TrEMBL record:
Domain named Schlafen AlbA-2: residues: 45-152
Entry superkingdom: Bacteria
UniProt cross-references to Pfam families, sorted A to Z: SLFN_AlbA_2
Lineage of source species: Bacteria, Pseudomonadati, Pseudomonadota, Betaproteobacteria, Burkholderiales
Ranges of Basic and acidic residues composition bias in the record: 24-38
Native source species: Paraburkholderia terricola
InterPro entries: Schlafen_AlbA_2_dom, Schlafen_AlbA_2_dom_sf
Region (Disordered): 1-38
Protein name in UniProt: Schlafen AlbA-2 domain-containing protein
């Protein structure tokens, strides 16, 4: 099977699963080998049916330039291009647009150069968050079977719509349950100091085809999470716990935990920055306040946190897409602090009833997305709660 995290390690030949030849490979629900390049309109429409079938399922790979016999890869048929840099983006754009709704999670293309010249093209299709998808030229929905693709019947279409709605609900239910466990002091760090900002990354694969990763693989993959801390110090070495592995930060002067990163067996990641209260001074009435300064977690998440999570999931070979979910836990009436001019700060207060806040899920088509672009709208939700449209933190420079 081609490695699931990303198609770029694929090579022409070798003994491992990243090689196109050199070991027996059979077509299954998540791979389809096709000999020819789809040059014409009809051929691209036919390929779009395969894209829809994969997007309506847990995803898969289309391998172009591979001959198959009896459901197994039988040999490479090199594809040759006058201008690969133009032909490949044109194909992927067409394959995104022919289905309705548009397939947002791919296909992502990887050309594999061949020693004798030419290429094999690997097109990766992720499960679609807007599934089920249909091909607009025949208005049919397609499903993936062990022998290829086939149009869905009415029962399959109903099930696909129900599963699509369930996916978003399951992801948000996971986040809500995780926040509730932290409030009940049942999370990975039961003595976490609040207020806290909690970032979850939930791969779609963890919902659609959950599998438990080996604990040694988890421990090795979690190493990048040590650099993801919202604090000034790195998190500790990965340690085994009930749900996977945990990298945990230092305790504060009250012997409370301040930060941690949890990697679950199914590939979900929970990154938490706690102990966010700092002293502030309201000059208008000469009052000392205990304040949350969002830049304390916003800047590290943009600079280190999301990239560390992406590196961890790449090592574990957990594929995109994924959902990013940001949440906060507070005491009633928490003050939010930010600088409005040199040596002058503002301290708006959250509504007194607000002790928990969550941002809408952010869909990540791949883990190479720009962290600033991904996180900024999620950060804005907290600022909206105090009447400010967008985060005033200079996320580009961290100032």
């Amino acid at each position: 099977m081609i490695p699931r995290a990303r198609p770029d390690p694929v090579i022409e030949t070798g003994p491992g699963p990243a090689a196109l030849t050199g070991h027996p490979v059979r077509e299954r629900r998540m791979r389809d080998d096709q000999r020819d390049w789809p040059a014409g309109r009809d051929a691209r429409t036919e390929l779009a049916k395969d894209v829809c079938a994969f997007a309506n399922a847990p995803g898969g790979d289309l391998v172009l330039g591979m001959r198959e016999e009896g459901g197994a890869a039988a040999g490479i048929v090199p594809l040759r291009f006058a201008d690969l840099d133009a032909d490949l983006p044109a194909l992927t754009s067409t394959l995104r647009d022919l289905p309705g709704p548009r397939v947002s999670g791919g296909p992502h293309a990887h050309p594999v150069p061949l020693a004798a010249g030419g290429h094999v093209i690997v097109l990766r299709v992720a499960p679609g968050p807007a599934a089920p998808h249909r091909v607009t030229r025949d208005n049919h929905f397609y499903a993936r079977t062990p022998v290829g693709k086939e149009p869905m019947d009415i029962h399959g279409i109903r099930h696909a719509f129900a599963a699509s709605a369930s996916l978003a609900q399951q992801v948000q239910a996971f986040r809500d349950d995780a926040l509730a466990r932290i409030v009940r002091h049942e999370g990975p760090a039961p003595d976490l100091a609040l207020p806290a900002c909690i970032c979850h990354v939930v791969p779609v694969a963890a919902v659609t085809r959950p599998e438990g990763h080996d604990i040694d693989a988890l421990r090795a993959a979690a190493a990048p999470l040590q650099t993801a801390s919202p604090g000034r110090r790195a998190l500790g070495q990965p340690r085994i716990n009930l749900h996977g592995v945990l990298c945990i930060g230092d305790r504060n002067e009250d012997e409370e935990q301040t930060a941690y990163a949890q990697l679950d067996r199914d590939g979900c990641v929970e990154l938490v920055g706690g102990a966010l209260l700092r002293r502030g001074w309201a000059q208008r009435n000469d009052e000392e306040l205990w304040v949350v300064y969002p830049e304390l977690y916003e800047v590290p998440l943009v600079r280190y946190g999301l990239r560390a999570i992406a590196d961890t999931l790449a090592v574990l070979e957990v594929p995109a897409p994924a959902y990013l979910l940001l949440g906060w836990l507070f005491a009633p009436g928490t003050w939010i602090g930010y600088e409005v001019a040199q040596h002058r700060a503002a301290f708006p207060s959250l509504p007194t009833h607000l002790t928990q806040l969550t941002a809408p899920p952010v869909y990540l088509e791949d883990f190479g997305a720009d962290p600033l672009t991904v996180l900024r709208p999620a950060f804005d939700v907290l600022w909206n709660a105090v009447g400010i449209a967008h985060t005033p933190t200079d996320l580009a420079t961290g100032a």
